[in-house]
Specification:
14-stranded antiparallel beta sheet, 2 helices, mainly beta
């Protein structure tokens, strides 16, 4: 969804206040078509986005599932489903990931592997679809590390961010992400929220994703997230270029803390 911790010269410990206030939770979002551009191949869309975020004994675990039915201009429908599972340790030194992409029920892409932060670089070991290693710059952030960094910047009233982030997904696993962060705003969602975890004030984070080395051609993807100070996303917008999806928070439930020795 997002990801981040203050990272400088190998110091990767999360800001303690931000990390301590993150709430383990399960959230459900209803996706609808918000707008299209002239000439868009998509005329209708509906779907759901499910997200699970949990503090476990050795780090952060997140799971996201995105299911969409896209209606084309010629009447054809595409049933698209995407899932991503991530584990990241608390000091952002190790990260594991698995992405699966389905179209009309058929698996069309799967990527999984692990990344490790060393003093002078980040080393990625892909296990699937082919076994290969890749070196990334030492300033590369992992997803949760990036999310925490954005929240820390928001609390310090910093309005802009620009970070290199690796998540391991798809053809472009690492991006330069430019962020614009709003001031604090009051929650306004109507979600089923028995634990009152989506009532915190939020920051609207507008993110533009630039493939590394291709900034001059513009972002390939943009999204905006109303991100509560406790880590709960209260609303989201996904901009795919020729169409835009809006995600309304429908239901959210708090998860218990783990029992760790």
């Amino acid at each position: 969804m997002l990801g981040t911790v203050l990272f400088s010269s190998g110091a990767v410990a999360a800001p303690p206040t931000v990390a301590a206030e993150l709430v383990s939770h399960v959230a459900e979002y209803r996706l609808r078509l918000s707008s299209t551009t002239n000439g868009s191949a998509i005329v209708a869309a509906r779907g759901a986005f499910d997200y699970r975020f949990e503090r476990v004994c050795d780090g952060w675990v997140s799971e996201m599932r995105n299911a969409l039915i896209l209606q084309g201009t010629e009447g054809s429908a595409i049933n698209s489903a995407y899932s991503m599972t991530q584990w990241e340790d608390f000091d952002a030194s190790r990260y594991r990931f698995r992405m699966r992409d389905f179209q009309d029920g058929q698996l069309i892409d799967e990527v999984n592997g692990e990344a490790q932060r060393l003093t002078d670089k980040v080393v990625v070991h892909y296990e699937n679809p082919v076994e290969i290693d890749e070196d990334l710059p030492p300033e590369t952030l992992f997803p949760m590390q990036h999310s925490i960094k954005l929240l820390d910047q928001a609390r310090r009233d910093e309005r802009f961010g620009n970070d290199l982030v690796f998540d391991g997904a798809g053809d472009t696993p690492n991006y330069r992400i430019a962020a614009v962060i709003s001031g604090v705003r009051s929650a306004s969602n109507t979600a089923d929220d028995a634990d009152n975890v989506a009532k915190d004030p939020f920051y609207r984070m507008s993110l533009a994703f630039y493939p590394v080395g291709q900034a001059e051609s513009g972002p390939t993807y943009e999204m905006s997230v109303d991100y509560g100070g406790n880590g709960v996303a209260q609303h989201l917008v996904q901009n795919y270029g020729d169409f835009i999806l809006e995600g309304e928070l429908v239901r959210v439930r708090k998860l218990p803390l783990p029992e760790c020795n």
